[in-house]
Structures are given as C-alpha cells and as structure tokens.
Amino acid sequence: METFKIIMMATLAVVMIISAIMAVLSKEMPLAILASGAISLLASIFFLILASPDVAMTEAAIGAGLTTFLFFIILRKTEQNSHEDKK
Amino acid sequence: MVSPFYILIVGLGLGFLLGMTGKKQAALTNMLTLFAMAFFTGVSLHWIQGLYTGAFQPSMVFSAGFKPPFSISLFLGMHEAVISLMINVLGLISVWYFREFLLRDSKPLGAVLLVMFMGLNMLVFTRDLFNIFVFLEITAISMSGIILMNDNHHAHAAGFKYLLASSLISAFYLLGAVLIYFSTGSLYLDDILTMKSAFAPMALIAVFLMVIAIVIELKPFPANGWALDVYEAAHPGIGAIVSGAVTTTMLFLLNKILVLGSDKIYLLTASVGALTFLFSNWMGLQQKNPNRLLGYSSIGQVGLVLAILGMKPVLGDGVEMIGFGVLLTHFLAKAGLFWLSGTVKGSSLESWAILRNNPVILTIFGIFVFALSAFPPFPSFYAKWELIIGLSGTGNYLLIALILLGSLFEVIYLFRWFGIVVKAESEESDSGIEWGKAAGPALFALALLAGGYFARNYLSAPDMMNFIPLVAVVVLWVLDFMPAWAKNTLLLAMVGIYSWFYLPQYSDYQLIFGIIFMAGAVLTLLYGYSEKGKRPGFYPLTAMMFAGLIMLVEATTLFGFFFAWEVMTAGSYFLILRGKKSQPHALSYMLFSFGGALLILAGFAMAHAVTGLWTLDALVMDSPLSPVIFIMLTLGFLTKTAAIGLHIWLPGAHSEAEADVSPMVSGILLKAGVYGLIVLFMRMGTQYIGGVDLMVILSWVGILSALIGNLMAAMQEDMKRLLAYSSVGQLGYILFGLSMMSNLGWLLAISGAIMHFLYKTMLFQAVGGVYSRTHDRMMYRMGGLIFRMPMTFIVVLIGIIALSGVPPLSGFAGKWLSFNAVLQKEYYLQGALAVLAGAVAFLYLFRLIHAPFLGQLKDNLRKVKEASLWILLPQYLVIAVIMAVSTVPGLLLERIGKLLAKTFPDGGLLWVDSKIPFGARTAISEYGYWNGTYVMLVTIGIFGILLIVQLLMQRNNKKVGQFNIVYSGERPSTPETTHHAYNFYAHYSKALGFLMVPLAERFWTWISERVHDIAHQLRQLYNGNGQVYLMHIMFFFLVCYFLINGGF
Amino acid sequence: MGEKIVYAIIAVFIMLNYGFLVNGVIRRIYARVGRRIGVPIYQMYIDLFKSWGLRTNIRHGTMFYLGPIFRLTGGIGLFLFMPAVYGLALFTNFSFSGDLLLLLSFQFFGTLGMALGASESGHPNSAIGVTRGLAQMTAVEVPFILAIMAVAIQYDSLSLTEIIAQQQGGFLNWTLFTNPLATAAALLAMLGAMMRAPFDVVLAPQEIPIGPPTEYHSNYMVFLQSNRAIFPLAKSILFMNLFFGGATTIVMMLVKTFILLMWPVLVGVSFPRFRVEQSIRWFLRVPMIIGLLGIAYVHFFLK
Amino acid sequence: MNLTIDKIALLLGMSLMLIGLWGGFTQKNLLKIILSFSIFDTGLNILIVALGYLPGRTAPIIDGSAVTPENLALVAIDPVPQALVLTAIVIGFGTTALLLAYALKLNQHKKSLDINQFTDLKW
Prior knowledge:
The complex is a heterotetramer. By secondary structure, chain A is mainly α. Helix content of chain A is 91%, strand content 0%. Classes of the chains: A mainly alpha, B mainly alpha, C mainly alpha, D mainly alpha. At the B-C interface, helix 32, helix 33, helix 34, strand 7 and helix 37 of B face strand 1, helix 3, helix 4, helix 5 and helix 9 of C.
C-alpha cells in the first residue's frame, strides 16, 4: 500500500513537473494556462495525501479554479487589445 | 488605553465599506477616509501621551484571549507608538494630499489607503512572525493597487516590477517564517527569542531568510531597480508614502527581527547598508529626474539606517537612537520633498526653480536639503556625530570611510539641485504653488526643526554650548519683512550687545579671533547700509555665519566646535549663493567645505576614541594614530583656508559673491580655518609620519600657496578674482607661519591673520564701491577713476602699500617677521620663495591700483560718482586702525607676543624703549631690530620736506586735460587704445607661465569626471527590465546566503 | 635727535652732489666707449638748473604730482636708514630705525610711488615701463635676498652695523672673501637693480622713451635726477656694507661706492639688452643657483 | 534512497519553485511570467506542507474518533503550517490577480505583452 502510494505520488510529481515545464515553455498561452491549472489540481491531491485536506480544498478552488479562470479572462482581453491594434 | 485592534477593525471595516461606495458618495468617502486617518493619528497620540505620563504601561495585547501562535499578538510600547504616530500623520496628510483624486475618481483609492496604513500599523505592533507575512502582503498588494489606480503607464510598468519583486521577497519571508516555526515550534517573537542561544541550523537559515527578505524590501544595492522606478513614475504622493511610511515601518520591523540574528547577520546588514548608502548616492550623481533623484537619495538614506542598525552588536543599543535620528530626518524630509514634487510641473531639476517664487516654500525646500545633508540643527546632524564617534570608538574605519564618502556624494547632488532651484533660469514666472499641497511639507519642515531640538537630548557628548548667537538668526528670520536698514541696525545692535557681554570673557586666541569676527561683522554691516530694499534672506544668513564663527571661538568641546563649524559653513554657503552668477562656485565651496568638515568629524571622532575626552583637549595625545588624525584635521582646515590644491573653490566663490559678502567670506570667514589650525597645532604639536616632519610639508604647502596664489592674482583681469587669489597667497603665508611652530612664526601668522582681515575687508569693500558705480569688475575696462573716486583710491593706495609690505605701513611687520622666523628656523629655501612671492604680490597690487584708478579715464565712466558714504565709512575705520598699528607696531605685536610666550617661551621678540624721545618701542629679534615709529617719522619727515621743496620750486603748476601727453607728437583721442591695462604682465606669464598651469583644477576636474563616469557605469545596472531586477534580487540573495553560510 | 637731523641733512647734501658728479663720470665713460667725447662731468648740474628753470610745469593729477616726491623719499630714505660710514656719527644716519630688512623693503617705497605717479599721467609708455620694471624687480629680488640671507646667517645678524663690525680688521674679513658665492649672487642681482644694460629694458630709451618717467619734466625732473644720483649710491653703500667691509672714513666710502658703481657700468657698456622675460629667466637661473650655493656654503661650512 | 511521500513532496516543491523561477526569469511574455510565478507559489506551498508533514499522522481535524482534543498533539499533524499555507494561497491569488490586472493595463497602453517593451524607466 505504502509503496503503491509512493509510486503514485512519484508519478504525479513527474507529471506535475512536466506540466510545469510545459506551462513555462509552451508557445500557446491557453495550453500553458491549462497546464498550470493542472499543476494546482494535482497539487491539491498532494495536499490531501499530506494530510492537509483544508489546504487541498483551497488549492483546488483558488489555484486550479479561480486563477485559471482569471488567466483566461485576461488572455482574451489582451488578445482583443492586440487585435484592435492590428485593425 | 485604546487597543491597537481598533486600528485593525477601523482600517479593514471602513476599507471594505468604502470600497463599495460609488462616485456619488465621493465627498462622503473622502471625509470618512480623512476621519479614519485622523482617528489613527489620534490613537497614536493618545498612546504616546499615556505612555509618557505613565497613565498606562507598555503592554502586550492578544486577540480573542488566545495566546500565540493561535492569536494575533500586538505589543504596544513607546517605540511602537512613536513610529505609528509618524506613519499615521503621514497617512493623514497623504489622504489630504490625494483628496482631489478621491473626490474626482470613482476608484476606491481611499479604501485602499486605509487598508494599507492599517497594515503598516499592524506591522509595527505585531510580534507574530506569520502576521508579519500577512501584513507585508497586505501592504504590498494595497500599495500596488494604489499605483495601479494612477493613470500613468510608466507608473503601471513600475508597479508591475514592484509587485513581481515583492512576490519574490514574500516567498523568502514565508519560507523563513515557516522554517522558524518548524525549528522552534513557535511564531511568537518573544518565545523564539528565549531560544536564540540554542538555535538549530535550520533556525539560523530561517532567520537569515526573514531578515534578508525585509532587507530586500528596504531596497539594498543592487536589488533595488524596481523601487527606483516606483519613485520616479508613481504619483509623488505615493513616493512620499513609500519613502516615508513604508520604509519606516520596514526598518522598525527589521530592527524587531534582527534581534534573532547572529552577529554575522548584523554584520551583513551593516555592510549591505553601508554599500547601499555609498553606491546609491554615487549613482544619484548622474540623475537628472528629480523624483528618481529622490529615489536614489531615499535608498541611500535607508541604507544608512540599515548600516546603523547592523552595528548594534558593536555599538550597543544606542544605535537605535542614532538610526532613529537618521530615519526621522529621512522620513520628514523625503516625504516633504515628494509632496513638494507634486506641486512642480515638469520633470527636470530646473523645473523646480519655480519654488523660488515663494520664499516660504523655498525655505521649506532648503530645510529639507540641509536636513538630508546632516547639517545642524537637524536630527541627522546629531545622529551623524554620534555614529561617527561610535564607529571610531570601535575602530571601524572602513565603514566610516564608506559612510563619509556616501554622504559627500549625496551632498553633491543635493546641493547641485538646491543651487539650480535657487539660481537657475526658470521659464515659468508665475508661482503655481498650491498652498493646500504645501501644508504637509511645511508641517514636516517644522517637525524637523523640533526634532533637532529634541535630538540634542540624546547626545552622548557633554553639550555646553552657548546658543544665544543662534537667536539672532531666528529673530532676523521672523523679521525678514522689514526694510534692510532696520534689519541692519538690529543685527549691528545685536553684535554690539553680544560683544559687550561676551568678548571680555574671552582670552588668548579666542579673544583675538573673537575680535576679528565681531569687528568684521560691524565693518561689513556698516557697508550694508548702502543697500536699499529688503534684501530678503540676507540678514538671517549673515547672522547665521557670524553666529557660527563666534560659536566656533567659544567652543570648548569637540562637538561644539563641529556644530559651530557646520553652522558657519551653511550660513556662508547661502551668502555666497546669493551672488548673481555664483551658483557653480557656491556648489564647489559647499563640496570642499563639506568634504573638509567630514575629515574634521572623522578626526575628532578618532581623537575622542584615543583619549576618551570630549573637550578640545582630546587632541592632546600621543598615539600611533595621532599623525593620521593630524593629517585629517589639517586637511579639513586647509580646505577652509584654501591651501594650494584645495583652493579651486575660492576664486569663484569670493569673486562672484555680492559686494558686501566678499569681504565677509574673504576677510573674515577664512580666519575660521586659521583658528582651526591654531586649535589643532596648539594641542597636537609637531607630528611625524615615517620620520618626516609634517610641519615641513605644511610649510611647503604654505609657501607654494603664497607663490602660486600671488602669481595667479597677477594674471587676473577681474578685480575681485584678483583679490580672491591674493587671499590664497596671504593664507599661504599664514599657514607657512603656523607651520614653523615657533614664536616668531606664529606671531607672523596671527598678526598676518589680523592684517589680512583688515586689508581684505577694506579692499573688497573698496572694490565693491567701484562696482556699485561702474557695474564692472574687469579692470582694463576702467581707468582714471582716481579723478572720479578719489576717496576710494586713497583706500586702495593705503591697502596696497600695506599689503605689499612696504615700510612704513604695517605690512612690513609681516615681511620682517617672516624673514626673522625663516632665519631662526633655517627654512632658507622656503624663505627665498616667500621673498619671490612677496615680490609678485607687488605685481598684482600695482595692477589693482593702476588699471582701474590710474591711466586714461574711459568715456563711459566720465559721470561716475564717488562711492556712497556708508561704503567708505568702514574702509576709513580700517585705515585708522592700520595707521595706528603702523605707527606703533607694539600695540599689536607686543600683545600677541605676550600671548605666544605661553605656547612658545623662547625665540620671541624683545621690546625695549629706545633711548631717543617718544619712548617708541623697538622690537628686537635674535637677528635684527625694528622700530616702526621711527620708520614712520623719518619717512613722513623726508616726504614732508620734499613736498615743501616741490611746492616752493614749482612755477605756474596747472592741471592739464586727459590726453595732453607727449605721444610721438600726436594727441591720442581714445582712452581704450591709450590705457595700457589688458594682459598687463604678458611677459611674466611668458617667463613663469609653467607655474601657473591649473594643475589643481585639472586634477579635481579629472576626479569629478571619473566619479561621474563610474556613477554612469554603475547605473547601467538598472536597465528597466523587470526580470533583470528579479535576477538582481536573486543574485543579491545568493551572495548574501553564501557570505553568511560560509562560502562556495 | 636734533643733532641727528642736522647730520642727516649734511650727509644727504654731500651724497647728492657726489652722486651728480659720479653720474657725469658714468656718462662720459659711456660716451668714450662709443668713441664720443661726451658731456662735461658737471653736466648734471646744468641739466638740473635747466629743468628747474622752466617757466611752467603741468600736472596730470595728484599722484602724478606726488610721484617724484615718493621716488626721492625712497632714495633718501634708503640712504638714511643705513650707516654709511662705520663709526662716524655724521654718517650713521637713522640706522637705529631698523635693520637690513627695512632697507630691502624700503627700496620699494620710491618704486611704488613713482609707478603710481607715472601711471596717472595716462601715458601708455609709462605703464609699459612700470610693468617691465616691476616684473624684472621680482626676479632680481630672489638672488639678492639669497645673498642677504647668506650674510645674515654668516654674521648671525640682520643689523648692518653689526655686519660691518664683523668685517673689520683687514680686507680678508670682507664677505667678498669669506663668502664669495653670496657676493657673486648679490653682484649679479645688482646688475638688475641698477637698471643698466643688459637690464635696462625698463627705461628702453629707443622703444618707450625713457619708460616710467616719460611724462615728467621741470622740477619733477629735478627730483628724479636727484634720485638717480642718490639712489644708486645708497644701493652701492648697502653692497659695500654687506660685502666689502663697509667704510670707516668718508673717503673710503666714496671710493668704494664709486668702484661698485662702475661694475654695472662696465657690464652695461659691453652687453646688449635683454627682454623682460629673458632677464626674469636669467635671474631665476644663474644668480639664484649661486645664491643657494652661497647659503649652503654658509650653512655647512661656516657654521 | 528511501523515498517517502514527504521527500517526494519536498523534491516536487523545490522543482516547481525552480521551474517557476526559471520561467519568471526567462519568459518574455507578461502572462507567462505571472504564470511562472504562480507555479513558484504552488511549489512553495507544497514545500511548506511537506516540511510539516509527519509520516503516519492524520489531518488535524478533530473528528471525535481518531483525533480527539486530548491526543491532538500526538496523532495529528501540526495545524499551524497548514493554516499558514491556506493564507498564503489566498494571498498568492490576490497577488496573481493584481499582476494580471497590471498586465492588462500595460497591454492596453502598448498593445504588447513583451516585458522588454516596458523599460522606459531606467538608470
């Protein structure tokens, strides 16, 4: 059980790190934002396992939810701005 | 006692409430914000009052009855109360300052401001490490919110950088706070403190993280690019908050957390602070944007406080008061300056020239600049004194050097700016100053003065000064609206009364110089009656200079001496700055004086460290350090006496000053340096370094000053410049005399000082009289003025005969003494050069009388009138004195000789009654003898007989017209071509021009250019890219980490 | 005191007349060197009476009027402040008023007054002459003072009487022999001080007709000529006292001063003229070095 | 190497922080920089929680059975760091939001999100 947990956590960590690298490197902004949201989401799983359910909840709601949402809004607005400029 | 939680509640509650109001309730919002800030202020005042009277004790407050870590724990003591008062007052004024934005915009600025000041207050009170993190973030976020509300895209860019930086900083802090919790199990500062001795390695790292986070928050070099941008671009009101309130809070916070740190961390803080102070001020040299300049200055000042706080393990708890002195000055002056900046349109230093349309605002500006430069009577002055004294006691000379160099740089740009504001051409003429916006600066300027008054109480040096002279400054400042003649009379009366009561109490050298200064005041003030109008500002400044001089003479303690020295420097700087084109010269005067003063300060501090005395007798010592102290003090005083190499400020400053200021700064002020040298030499005596007698070096400096000063004087076309260079020469003689350390040498120096005072006062006044009529200073453009201004001519005639040392007038005494002293001391080479210098003096003196007064009268001067009576009166008073001491030299020399016998019992003059009538006294030296009375009588006798003969011999003597001369059978008709005056000694410069190469000027120009180059190179660091700034922070963090944790 | 005044007047009268005659001699020498016959020795008297005889004289202003008086006061004063003949009351003059330094400084009294007077005339040539004179004087001073310093060190005194006293007892006691270097420096300086060729650019008769006194005539000229008679004599008395053992009789004084006066004359007739900057450089080179050597010699060998 | 959960978490947290910093220092797009910082924050939070984790203990929630007020200190994990992280998350969100608002404002002015465009202020 414990070993399984560790393997799962390790896998999760690797995924998160890959997502993080993707988020940083990706040329596509939406993809990057999604990757970052994924990190937060996976982090909340981590928190849960690290016996911090309250932190997990907050991270899921704020980090994965609100932040991602906000990023998308701003992304759209800035794209609109740049778009107007091209016209 | 009102609980500090009310601040939290009111701040947060009202903040949220106001955030929801709309545009329609703008007036109400504004009122509520103002009330809330007033409430904060009132609460702080209430605490201070309560704590001061003992109505309640410093106490700990916990939220909800829990103990930490489950509650917010606030401590309320006197320190906290004072800091919170400062913050809240600034907040109150800020809200007032922002009122138009508050009223105009729908943005919830007021709410954010309230939250922010609440956060700052809490940071001051809280003792909980995690709360600190929360409030740090609250202030950072609200600060960025305020910046975001500005409609200025530069400010937005700056705010973005700021926010990025602060997220990095808060991460450091958070990690630190968490680690300390894991290591000690507590977040409560006082609990943790009890465990300090048993800190685990993790705790040490935790403390480092927290400290470094707050240090970075305080904008250390080089991790501060973001802050500079905020200062430059954000609204000046924000600049005031950041520079004043935020910085103050952070410093207080740092001081709170630093106690957890090891000595290493303290040392790191001190080094970072000192380097920041140095480099920030250095880079400020190149800055042309006033707000960014203020930013550099803010960063520098905060660095200084950091350095001071970091010295706590070395200097003890006293550093907190020192740091507070600097901080208070910075807080008041910087906030005030930022607010003033808001009233100035335009973003160049020149645009501030608008301030001078309003004397009150200009005064306020001046107070800020002088306070930042640590002049008396501001708190920073006392702090500087205490700091340097303290550091010196612990032998931290490197730190002293860093700090002094930094403050010199700061003074350079501050005074360059001040000079521009007072003097530069301004395009706008209307004074668009809003009084509403000036209220804050005015209040803070007053607070600075009050702060200075209180700062004195914390002085460790015994302070036995007579502050009465300064009363004159205040009185005249208040009465500045009166006409000039009234103020003149008032000051004259004050000088008279003061002299009447105090001069009889003086003795020895004090008396001599006291008389010089007071008589000088009388002479220059008599001249002052010739000025019409109000002369705004002139009298308080004159009073300041003379107050400084007389306090200098009265000073018995190191502190008193330095205090007086600075007062005098400030007063004279202002006076020089009043001249029409004197701005660059006043600046260089200030820089040299300030540099000199710093050396004096350092020297005094080291002397005190060696002997432990506070009186001037601290200089009496025998220690390996004494040659170093001697050199520093001597250099300091030599900047004032303008010894060659340090003289380049003098010609400009003395010649560009106003007509009656020139005699003050030349005839009188220079003697302060001489007095300093006397005080020094009397106590330290001859010093050797590596077996070299420093006095011999000084004698060469003196003699070269004399020679080159005189040579330069002979080459000037401008008569005031000529006299100015002549002062360099004369002071060179005085230095030469002092350096001989013998009875005759000092007799030469002291009588020389008195004579120089008389001659220069008289000649500068005469020249001033000429200028008042001709409005010209170029000698070759004049000519023949003897026909128009005979009274002035007589003055100059007597002056030059006396000054050139031709018997029978008193100047000969100097020659006679110097030759005797030289023979006695075996200074033959110097003696030969002294003679050459004396002969050269003849050249410039002849030029001074020939070019303007003799030769051909120019057409445009035909209607010139004699100088006014008030100008002539003091000159003739001087002539009377000169004639008296020429006829009876013993009047002066014998008395001085008696005084000198106390210091140098051997080798003095012997005074005997001669056998022949009148009982005239003959001076007898080791080598020769001299009876001034007989010389005078014989000369007058021969002259009189010959005059009678000539009167009898002449026939039909009549005066002829101007051009009636034998000129190759022609009658020249233009005075211009017939008046030989321009480039008078061309042949001389051909022969000895190599001595007149302006090496000193080149040297200082080269230094100045290099310093500015380096400043320019350094500031390339700040390339404007927020990411680069982040990397600076990271880099700074890593370097500090490795420094603390031992290497790579 | 009264007796001293009478003596002084007599001494001045003697020296004036002697000076006139010597000047006549010098002019003749110059003429002979130039293969002319020259003026009679008493020519100076003729000139004086002629100048005095002018029916009018003009003035350009007060300083102009006083200039020659200053000049002559300087000449007579210089003479009167030193003992001309050692031990003779008649020629001890007012030497009790001051020592050697008084003499050195008092030389400039006349120079200054004259310069001022000449300047007031508004004649450019006067001013040019004055600047040249002053400039040259500064350079001449240095070797001269060095020599004086050497003498003062040697005799441990600045009192001229004392210096003469120490040179008594045979010509080998003269400074000339005890300290030849100082004497040489002083004699070279004397060339400049006497304003004869090659250092006569101050007067430069060809370029700026007689320099400073350009505008002077009539009774002014009488004063200036009188000064020209007594001033060089006074200077040579000074040299005599310093370097040539002084004089114990009037005749010895007259002879020694005459010989000394011939020194610049002899140099003068055989050299062309220096420009001002050349003479400044020259004086600050050769004579100054000799003067310094003189001091070194005294300091290291005679003490 | 004996991997445990908290060690993995520690490593993960550090890696995320480093990646976040790397992104923040190298990316030129403002949004990317902000994104990188939020990854950095997440990493920091994981790190803190991991540091406070004690293997074998449960969450500090008094449920009446496993964890009671009496045995809280023995059975449960210290709740304080969690509270801290909780606060930090909220504050981090605030910062991110504000940074985004800045990005928007800056974008409105220069029509660009390249950080190199915003270097008007320098020296």
